[in-house]
Amino acid sequence: MFAVCAVAFMCLMSVSHSAPMACEKLVQPLNRLEPHKFQGKWALIADSLNNTASMEALRRRDSITLYFSNSSGDSTFSFTQINRFGDLCQYLRYNVSVQHNTFNFDVQDHSYLTGSFLYTSCPDCVVMQWSLKSRSRTTSLLLLSRRREVGQKEMEEFREQLRCYQLPTPVVMDPTKDLCPEQSDRRPTAEPESNSPNSPSFHNWNIQIL
């Protein structure tokens, strides 16, 4: 009986120690950003935020595309977010500065938006953690990929990262929905929601919150 209890105790100790170690790895920002690896087109696969209104706004989007393009050197980038609402596309562009393993968005209001890239075992994915400081703090974790959908193992790893951050079940985008085309014109095709920081829709998905 003592031997059985001892084995059970050791198993419990093993689980209790392995879980924090797993989170320590999953929430670890990349030590050094290599900006050229992140350039180009990314499709949003899944996202979760600690803001209910933002989650509802995210569900209203059919697809979201993100583009990173180098502006000057390795410290300044252009970031384009393209939201599809049915047949309409909304183009939002921002300047991004990189410092060590953190990037800062110029959102030109009273908000402060920062982000970092986290660990992922997916070879053609990135996981981004964004934090928006305004009247309150909103945290978002995004899974992006060069593909339109990822495998079950890759999605489960992302869900585990969300649990580490204590974020809700993610919104998973429908891979059958079309992405909007990249557009050079700076004028949005559609402006279905206000960008004002005082409007409810400002705190939608990520930068708006995205």
UniProtKB/TrEMBL annotation:
Arranged from A to Z, the UniProt key words for this protein are: Glycoprotein, Secreted, Signal
Bias type Basic and acidic residues, positions: 175-190
Concerning InterPro entries, the annotation shows:
ApoM (IPR022734), Calycin (IPR012674)
Q: GO cellular-component terms in the record?
A: extracellular region
On whether Signal is a keyword of this UniProt record, the answer is: yes
Q: Where is the signal peptide?
A: 1-18
Instruction: Report the locations given in the UniProt record.
Output: Secreted
Q: What is this protein called?
A: Apolipoprotein M
